[in-house]
Design a protein that fits this description.
The protein is mainly α. It has one domain (3-55). It has three helices and no strands. Helix 1 (3-12) packs across helix 3 (28-56). The chain starts with a helix and ends in a 13-residue tail after the last helix. It comes from Xanthomonas campestris pv. glycines. This is Helix-turn-helix domain-containing protein.
Length: 69
């Protein structure tokens, strides 16, 4: 496993930047960037899951009967 992959896994588990640096030996700045990337990726994944859930939600009325206000 690459060091950056290991750092991403640690960030996803909620480890602090200091813990990531100690476990992987990467720089603090790189750990910060990876942690931010991990959070952004997680938010993007959650948004995709929510969007797909709403696409699968059955409509209560047909689209022809929907009136915009």
């Amino acid at each position: 496993m690459k060091v950056e992959d290991q750092a991403l896994l640690l960030a996803a588990e909620g480890c602090s930047r200091a813990e990531i640096v100690a476990a992987t030996g990467i720089t603090r700045n790189r750990a910060k960037k990876l942690k931010q990337q991990s959070a952004a990726d997680a938010a993007d994944q959650l948004q995709k899951q929510i969007a797909s859930a709403f696409r699968a939600w059955p409509a209560a009325v047909s689209p022809e009967r929907v009136i915009s206000l």
